[in-house]
Amino acid sequence: MAHDEIVDHHSALARNALSGERIAQLHAGETVLDLGSGDGIDVLLSARRVGPHGTVFGLDARPAMVELAQRNAEQAGVANAQFLHGTIEAIPLPGHTVDVVIANCVINLSDDKAAVPAEAFRVLRPGGRFGVSDVVTAQGLDEQARPRAEQRIGHAAGSLTVQEYRDLLVAAGFVAVTITLTADHGDGVHSAIVQAVKPAIGPGLEIRPMREGDAAEVLAIYQAGLDTGQASFETTAPIWEGFTASRLPHLRYVATDSDSGEVLGWVAASAVSSRPVYAGVVEHSIYVHPGCQAHGIGRALLGAFIAAAEDAGVWTIQSGVFPENAASLALHQGLGFRVVGTRERIGCHRGLWRDVLMIERRSTLTGV
Ligand SMILES: C[S@@+](CC[C@H](N)C(=O)[O-])C[C@H]1O[C@@H](n2cnc3c(N)ncnc32)[C@H](O)[C@@H]1O
Predict the structure, then answer these.
(1) Measured from the CA of 155, which atom of ligand 1 is nearest?
(2) pTM of the complete model
(3) Do 191 and 234 reside in the same domain of the chain?
(4) What is the 208 CA–ligand 1 centroid distance (Å)?
(5) Whose CA is nearest to atom 26 of ligand 1?
(6) What pLDDT score was predicted for residue 17?
(7) Which residues of the chain carry a pLDDT beneath 50?
């Protein structure tokens, strides 16, 4: 295929952008999805990177673009590329089938921007990567500057601010979110590289944000943990309304069986204080289904939670652990928590006065 011909179809902004296949550092054998693939240039470049054992899907809402991309793939003799007609807000692929989602100058065009990361998260396998090039606007871009920039650049219509982009990715369940500004197009409009990861846990398992529909399973796992007598001074799990009211909505995750959807564990956090000085300090709880312990679920959940908390500006995560709960202590110490002290005989639990170890993890990335 004549590369120059394809590049001719690109807008000035798309030409300036770093292609998705370079951002995401593709490996041989991977399955890749290019959102809004246009004439297919990134799909063809990616197809070469993933090699004959990999597959690259291009998705575009315009049938003419799908046909053009198919013709380009045929002319280039690329056999491991497939072009799909559909929208990035309702991706026509099953869940957990893609290793990497890429996109170039597309997501800013969507009129339902929350749906795009949610769909990308759904189709990615655990551990999958999101690496896109997009257009973002500065926080609080004034209402006169925005239309000027949109008219000049032609791609910034309704683009997200860096914070809005980050919030949508975190709400979808992504962790390790980085947004790096690249070119400055003036009037507060920038190109940006946006990268994020779907938490990994192990074959057949995934981590996603907790939803209202998880209530019964989350509370059953909570109760099973309390029944061991080693998790908390509490003896009865609260009703959902009480649980949800006291936990931060953006810092709750569940681990699930990816086939059955069954919830196998959860982690959630509460604010410790309303004082601004403690805005980045939370207290967390983590519970794994008693039948699923020692499968790495706790470690994966806690790791994903720490990454999400740091993304959200949390600098200290704290909790209390009974000294007898050696598994929980080891889990936390393995992920950077330290024991800051022992509260001796602090509470009477089932007729026994018990100590509690206060543990905390101070971030080296946030609040430094
Ligand atoms: C600016 S072009 C970029 C094309 C390609 N990614 C590139 O870098 O050359 C945007 C492409 O996204 C497609 N597109 C826009 N909104 C879409 C949506 N909601 N769903 C699927 N495709 C969409 C358009 O048809 C167009 O081909």
Answers:
(1) 1
(2) 0.75
(3) no
(4) 27
(5) 38
(6) 47
(7) 1-17
